[in-house]
């Protein structure tokens, strides 16, 4: 089932999310619905707050990037990179910070350069509640950091300089008021 994505201004996007356990009701269906929702919006990551749930759950699927010539040097790593991360905790961020132009399904039509570390060590549970501790670099680390921010109540626009924040303020206001055209289901703040 395709769910509406919460737009900038929705209070759930600012919540520090709580952990869940393996008995969370309808977990497998929720994960399937999140993948359907993300794919219908042509995204590569989606966090539970973006569909209105303040739980520590996010998904990523970087396989669409494997076809992009910009990522041909890591295409093999990206083509099968589809993950569910539950109760994630970043243990370490290392390497040089690098800028990349980011966007967000909850903040359509806004893209800005954001600095993030090139490598992370993250602990999480998968959809079967098997615990993992993995190290990721490159786009894998970047997308995970972006989605991890969501479960911490942080948006990519929070990483912008004061000047950049002022420049996008008008666009953000319009999004929060529903004055944006998107080709996927969205729910705007009331």
From TrEMBL:
<dbReference type="GO" id="GO:0046872">
    <property type="term" value="F:metal ion binding"/>
</dbReference>
<keyword id="KW-0479">Metal-binding</keyword>
<feature type="binding site">
    <location>
        <position position="104"/>
    </location>
    <ligand>
        <name>Fe cation</name>
    </ligand>
</feature>
<dbReference type="GO" id="GO:0042586">
    <property type="term" value="F:peptide deformylase activity"/>
</dbReference>
<comment type="similarity">
    <text>Belongs to the polypeptide deformylase family.</text>
</comment>
<feature type="binding site">
    <location>
        <position position="150"/>
    </location>
    <ligand>
        <name>Fe cation</name>
    </ligand>
</feature>
<keyword id="KW-0408">Iron</keyword>
<comment type="function">
    <text>Removes the formyl group from the N-terminal Met of newly synthesized proteins. Requires at least a dipeptide for an efficient rate of reaction. N-terminal L-methionine is a prerequisite for activity but the enzyme has broad specificity at other positions.</text>
</comment>
<dbReference type="InterPro" id="IPR036821">
    <property type="entry name" value="Peptide_deformylase_sf"/>
</dbReference>
<feature type="binding site">
    <location>
        <position position="146"/>
    </location>
    <ligand>
        <name>Fe cation</name>
    </ligand>
</feature>
<keyword id="KW-0648">Protein biosynthesis</keyword>
<dbReference type="InterPro" id="IPR023635">
    <property type="entry name" value="Peptide_deformylase"/>
</dbReference>
<protein>
    <recommendedName>
        <fullName>Peptide deformylase</fullName>
        <ecNumber>3.5.1.88</ecNumber>
    </recommendedName>
</protein>
<keyword id="KW-0378">Hydrolase</keyword>
<feature type="active site">
    <location>
        <position position="147"/>
    </location>
</feature>
<dbReference type="Pfam" id="PF01327">
    <property type="entry name" value="Pep_deformylase"/>
</dbReference>
<dbReference type="GO" id="GO:0006412">
    <property type="term" value="P:translation"/>
</dbReference>
């Amino acid at each position: 089932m395709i769910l509406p994505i919460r737009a900038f201004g929705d209070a759930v996007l600012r919540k520090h999310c709580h952990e869940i356990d393996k008995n969370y009701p309808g977990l497998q269906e929720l994960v399937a619905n999140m993948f359907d929702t993300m794919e219908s919006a042509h995204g590569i990551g989606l966090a539970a707050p973006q569909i209105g749930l303040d739980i520590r759950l996010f998904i990523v699927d970087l396989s669409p990037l494997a076809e992009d010539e910009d990522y041909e040097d890591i295409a093999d790593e990206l083509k099968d990179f589809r993950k569910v991360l539950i109760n994630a905790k970043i243990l370490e961020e290392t390497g040089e910070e690098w800028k990349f132009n980011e966007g967000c399904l909850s903040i359509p039509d806004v893209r800005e350069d954001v600095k993030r570390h090139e490598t992370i060590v993250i602990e999480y549970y998968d959809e079967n509640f098997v615990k993992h501790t993995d190290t990721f670099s490159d786009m894998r680390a970047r997308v995970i950091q972006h989605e991890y921010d969501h479960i911490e109540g942080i948006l990519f626009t929070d990483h912008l300089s004061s000047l950049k924040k002022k420049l996008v303020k008008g666009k953000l206001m319009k999004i929060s008021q529903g004055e944006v055209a998107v080709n996927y289901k969205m729910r705007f703040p009331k």
